[in-house]
């Protein structure tokens, strides 16, 4: 018997089941790269690799769960949607990857476990919504948590290191670093303007502050730092 006043949580995703979902997504990404014909998609950039994409997904799961908890959203919907949101990213074009990801998630969730259809549809709705670029007030709370988490992973250390890796691919030197980090800051500020929850906003501000420190640090210690030239290439 359920004691009076205890809310029944609609769907629980067991830790083992969640681990299996993550393994499925990791393997799916790896297989997408293996199956791909050469060329055409800038595979040499680190953010197109299966390793980067899976790591990004793990970051979005953690950030999404923190935001969802603080905002009173359904944490399991957000975590499962985060796990699958970019599963198709290396397989199909960017403009259809959200819908493709939702299809893969739907098939997975229907064939494994006993997830109610309402849970599956909430998860898939959030996955489709994650590519929405409009006002976050227009989407359900769970979608918003996922979008905020997705955006936050590009702000801060991860965004800065991706930019540094890209510099290597573009044969740049460390003298360019401050200018390149400026781009990370610019994008970070644009992303921060978009988030609405207090949790996401405070994470974004903390991350941007650290990137600013990195920017100042570079300028102070790299003697030939080119801090304000043209970075276009
Ligand atoms: Fe993402």
Write the layout of secondary structure elements.
Blueprint: H1 15-35, H2 50-71, H3 75-84, H4 97-111, H5 117-129, H6 141-152, H7 157-169, H8 177-194, H9 198-221
Helix pairs in contact: 1-2, 2-3, 2-6, 3-5, 3-6, 4-5, 5-6, 7-8, 8-9
The structure holds fe (ii) ion.
Residues 56, 60, 85-86, 150 line the site of fe (ii) ion.
Short structural description:
This protein has 233 residues and is an all-alpha fold.
Shape: globular
- Unreliable stretches, pLDDT < 50, 5 or more residues? none
Return the average pLDDT rounded to an integer: 88
The count of domains is 2
The kinds of small molecule bound in this structure are: fe (ii) ion
Q: Which architecture of the largest domain does the CATH hierarchy give at level 2?
A: Orthogonal Bundle
Whole-number radius of gyration? 20 Å
How many runs of DSSP E, i.e. beta strands?
0
The CATH topology of the largest domain, please?
Hypothetical protein af1432
Biggest beta-sheet profile: none
Order of helices and strands: HHHHHHHHH
> If helices are DSSP runs of H or I spanning 4 or more residues, what is the number of helices?
9
Beta-strand percentage range: under 5%
Distance between the termini: 67 Å
CATH class bucket of the largest domain = Mainly Alpha
Helical percentage: 55-70%
Q: CATH superfamily membership of the largest domain, which one?
A: Hypothetical protein af1432
Computed structural class: mainly alpha
């Amino acid at each position: 018997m359920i004691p009076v006043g205890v809310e029944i949580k609609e769907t629980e995703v067991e830790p083992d089941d969640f681990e299996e979902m993550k393994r499925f997504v990791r393997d799916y990404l790896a297989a997408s790269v293996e199956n791909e014909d050469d060329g055409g998609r800038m595979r040499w950039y680190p953010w197109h690799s299966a390793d980067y994409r899976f790591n990004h997904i793990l970051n979005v799961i953690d950030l999404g769960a923190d935001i969802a908890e603080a905002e009173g959203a359904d944490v399991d919907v957000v975590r499962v949607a985060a796990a699958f949101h970019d599963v198709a990213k290396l397989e199909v074009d960017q403009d259809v990857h959200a819908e493709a990801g939702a299809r893969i998630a739907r098939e997975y969730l229907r064939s494994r476990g006993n997830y109610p259809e309402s849970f599956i549809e909430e998860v898939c709705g959030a996955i489709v919504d994650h590519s929405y670029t409009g006002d976050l007030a227009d989407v359900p709370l769970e979608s918003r948590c996922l979008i905020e988490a997705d955006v936050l992973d590009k702000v801060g250390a991860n965004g800065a290191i991706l930019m540094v890796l890209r510099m290597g691919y573009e044969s740049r030197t460390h003298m360019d670093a401050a200018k390149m980090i400026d781009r990370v800051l610019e994008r970070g500020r644009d992303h921060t303007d978009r988030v609405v929850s207090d949790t996401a906003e405070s994470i974004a501000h903390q991350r941007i502050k650290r990137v600013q420190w990195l920017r100042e640090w570079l300028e102070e210690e790299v003697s030939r730092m080119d801090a304000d030239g043209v970075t276009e290439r």
